[in-house]
């Protein structure tokens, strides 16, 4: 039978709780669908590792992780102990860049039975395609006139033709493969006078190659409002690094909880191992209490299996999640979903559902 090598990096905070919970579900999927997951645990990319070693990751982290088929990642960051930009640029953001994981896939769907904050949501089923290697996320720029009243700081945004075109091509291709064939591009070309008009011009150029795909361009502010007022009208949404980040917390919150959403940091060329994580962070406000919702991490596992070619297992995991969430048993559900259960009770319910199907 097939075997996949998976590097497991729990990181900080609730990453250390939702990763083991999701691994139980992945192990159950492997059992039911007769493949093997050979996991190896790594303690780096965490603030604990930093405390011991003075860096977020060892110098040879890339060499250590490259041989794996995929990386299963929790969350990083503990701003009480160190600034987030230090912990994140030293870990997750470095992985995304070094492995050139330019496509960040973040799907959201409304699961029947899950209480959502909208009165009349309709059928929400969208995929956010987030550019993951450039844009607003840079360390370029500088600070001048330190500690004077003229103090100033400049932060550059980078958009390269290759970087923009490859994410747009991915998003158009994905939209073309879906029934609605509808792509929404997030922009802000009214205020951001150079990079965003450039983004829009590349959308227009790519659109000529995909005549079947209906494209809308919306300013990010209006787009956020439309996510709330008519979320079911979106299919594929493509955005720059920052806009994609913001939209991908908003979308799952509209379907009930940020804790439900998965994220795949994908290298579509498959030269590097892709990284699968939940959309949420280390949630230190609830860490250590066994109350974090594990579904985002479980769905990240499903996304990973899909990427590895185990589509039936991925589908079965999502189906098990839908069944458990849909029956709305408060003893199983976590607090963010209105339940009284725990991280482990919810993961165990999904595991059981998966094995009994
Ligand atoms: P967060 O996503 O960790 O938490 C935001 C809110 O959502 C919190 O109230 C939290 O309790 C809640 N929440 C998040 N996940 C949940 C879950 N699974 N179940 C129930 N509730 C959940 O965002 P934040 O507070 O802005 O960031 C905390 C830390 O995580 C920071 O250090 C941040 O930089 C980092 N972070 C890391 C990643 C990552 O590693 N991929 C992603 C986002 C944030
Ligand atoms: C995410 C996170 C990261 C991002 C942070 C922690 C740097 O919010 O994965 O969505 O902005 O990419
Ligand atoms: Mn984010």
Automatic annotation (TrEMBL):
Keywords linked to the UniProt accession: Magnesium, Manganese, Metal-binding, NAD, Oxidoreductase
Signal sequence coordinates: none
Family: Belongs to the isocitrate and isopropylmalate dehydrogenases family.
Pfam families: Iso_dh
Enzyme Commission code(s) on record: 1.1.1.83
Highest taxon of the lineage: Eukaryota
Xref: SMART domains: Iso_dh
Catalytic activity: (R)-malate + NAD(+) = pyruvate + CO2 + NADH
Required co-factors: Mg(2+); Mn(2+)
Domain Isopropylmalate dehydrogenase-like residue range list: 5-350
InterPro entries: ICDH/IPMDH, IsoCit/isopropylmalate_DH_CS, IsoPropMal-DH-like_dom, TTC_DH
Protein name, as recorded: D-malate dehydrogenase (decarboxylating)
GO molecular function, one term: magnesium ion binding
The keyword tRNA processing belongs to this UniProt entry's keyword annotation: no
């Amino acid at each position: 039978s097939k075997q996949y090598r998976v590097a497991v990096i729990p990181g900080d905070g609730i990453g250390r709780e939702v990763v083991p919970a999701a691994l139980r579900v992945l192990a159950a999927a492997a059992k039911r669908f007769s493949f093997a997951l050979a996991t190896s645990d790594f303690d780096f990319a965490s603030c604990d590792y930093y405390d011991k070693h003075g860096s977020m990751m060892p110098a040879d982290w890339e060499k250590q992780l490259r041989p794996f088929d995929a990386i299963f990642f929790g969350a990083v960051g503990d701003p009480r102990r160190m600034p987030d930009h230090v912990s994140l640029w030293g870990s997750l953001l470095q992985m995304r860049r070094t492995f050139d994981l330019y496509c960040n896939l973040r799907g959201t769907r409304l699961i029947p039975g899950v209480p959502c904050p909208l009165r009349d949501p309709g059928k929400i089923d969208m995929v956010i395609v987030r550019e993951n290697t450039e844009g607003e996320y840079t360390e370029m720029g500088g600070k001048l006139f330190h500690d004077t009243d003229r103090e100033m700081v400049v932060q550059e945004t980078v958009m390269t033709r290759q970087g923009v075109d490859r994410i747009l091509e991915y998003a158009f291709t994905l939209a073309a493969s879906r029934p609605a064939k509808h792509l929404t591009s997030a922009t802000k070309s009214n205020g951001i006078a150079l990079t965003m008009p450039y983004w829009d011009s590349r959308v227009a150029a790519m659109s000529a190659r995909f005549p079947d795909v209906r494209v809308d361009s919306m300013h990010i502010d209006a787009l956020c409002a439309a996510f709330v007022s008519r979320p079911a009208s979106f299919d594929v949404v493509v955005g720059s690094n920052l806009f994609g980040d913001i939209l991908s917390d908003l979308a799952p919150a509209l379907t009930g909880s940020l804790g439900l959403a998965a994220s795949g940091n994908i290298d579509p060329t498959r030269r590097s191992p892709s990284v699968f994580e939940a959309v949420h962070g280390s949630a230190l406000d609830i860490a250590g209490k066994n109350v974090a919702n594990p579904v985002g991490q479980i769905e990240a596992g499903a996304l990973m299996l899909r990427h590895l070619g185990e589509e039936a297992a991925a589908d079965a995991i999502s189906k098990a999640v839908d069944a458990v969430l849909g029956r709305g048993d408060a003893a199983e559900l976590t607090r963010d979903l209105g339940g009284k259960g725990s991280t482990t009770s919810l993961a165990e319910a999904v595991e059981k559902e998966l094995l009994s199907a």
